[in-house]
Amino acid sequence: MCDTLLARGIISEKGNLIFAKNSDREPLEAQEQVHIPRISHSEKTLNCTYIQIPQVSSTWEVWLSKPFQMWGAEMGVNEWGLAIGNEAVFTQVIFDKSQPGLTGMDLLRLALERSKAAMAAKDLIIELLEKFGQNACGGYENKNFYYHNSFLIADPKDALILETAGQSWAWKRVKNHASISNCLSLEDDFEEWGIKEEDMYLSSIFNSKKGFKSRYSDFLYTYFSKAKDRKSFTEKSLISQRGQTGPKQMMEILKSHHPIGEGFHPKKASAASVCMHATGLTNPSETTGSMVAEIRKDQPHTIWLCPSPHPCQSLYIPFYFGNETSFLTHPSHLEDDSLWWQAKKLHTIIERNWKELFPKLKAELNQIQENWIKRDNSLIEEAASPEELSKFSLDCYLFYQKWIKEKLKEVSK
Question: Which InterPro entries match (predicted)?
Fold first, then answer.
């Protein structure tokens, strides 16, 4: 389960695009942060997660957050300020598992690598969807987890929602704010749609329904995902912060434990919580990665990536285009020395003694994060050089690594 949201225009504090997403995956599915420079390609084909497709001559510089074993990405931003997040949505269109296609994460990464703007990204996703389909397993250990996808796509000028079911699709523009979750939301308010006859396999009553959501949404899976609860909460949070939404406010939304709030305990978590904690069969997912991006029109963009699970217990690191990124640690399937797995170990200890340890941890993290956001603002206002931005990013990352090691020693006594 996931949530993707944006604030711009009158909702945004400075008028910049503030784009955010929590990635909710299987608890042991480590997520990595990946920087890929602009590349010229000589290869004719590209290996995506399950299938090959034709390669293009060049791809743009991107920052991605992705499950370690997948080619595609849960969320990301490219050098042109194009940001995309995707959501699993559950529909009544049957999967043809004998004909593998692209994952929603593949579609997202391909759009970021090959598009400059939101409208072009939307067109490319539709083109790839209609050509290759999305009959692809989205699970890690759960090999039966298949889903279709929705996308929130934005650049400094445009923003839109694209929803899919099989190879059918619908989209609409959004203005000052938007939130998508694990549910179809477009009825007849779309600007354009494309319906593939093979996707309309049900009764004549089903086929006669006008709205995209009414035609395709699967009630049972959508209901148990609690997507409507999370979507309603994030939308209300954005509206209530009109003219005040910046990275700090977005991070607070992504860290929230709706609907329990201050009385929250990880053992009480449900799928309605934006910062998700897995509790078992009815709530098997948890937040394994998170991103908040501030997209500026004529200044460098800041991509705040959370290189650890559970944003409520984590820090967001600032990254910039042109960064030197050899310092990044990439997790594997093992409990290795990567930042992600070390943070996972710390969070496990914190959650065993939540009432005592979490309030202190939260206060300390909030202070550090606030200082970093202020420093980022100062660097941007001072027109800092790429080298200065890169150094700030490296300093924050190394600090976080050291901080986790020290906390592990402290709480393990």
Answer: Peptidase_C69 (IPR005322)
Q: What is the dihedral of CA 304, 245, 175, 311, to 10 degrees?
A: 40
Q: Buried b vs exposed e over 59-94: b needs ≥16 C-beta within 10 Å?
A: bbbbbbbbbbebbbbbbbbbbbbbbbbbbbbbbbbe
Instruction: Yes or no: say if 411 and 349 are a contact pair by the CB < 8 Å rule.
Output: yes
CA dist., res. 43 & res. 254, Å (int) = 39
Query: Which tokens belong to 401?
Result: 């690594």
- In the block, tokens 């503030």 appear at 18
| Cα Rg of the chain (Å, integer) | 20
Global confidence as pTM: 0.96
The residue annotated as part of the active site, out of 2, 275, 306, 312, is 2
Q: How far apart are CA 124 and CA 118, in angstroms?
A: 10
d(CA 397, CA 56): 33
Question: Would you list the DSSP string of 157-184?
Answer: S-EEEEEEETTEEEEEE--SEEEE-SS-
306 given a catalytic annotation: no
pLDDT in tens, 125-155: 999 999 999 999 999 999 999 999 999 999 9
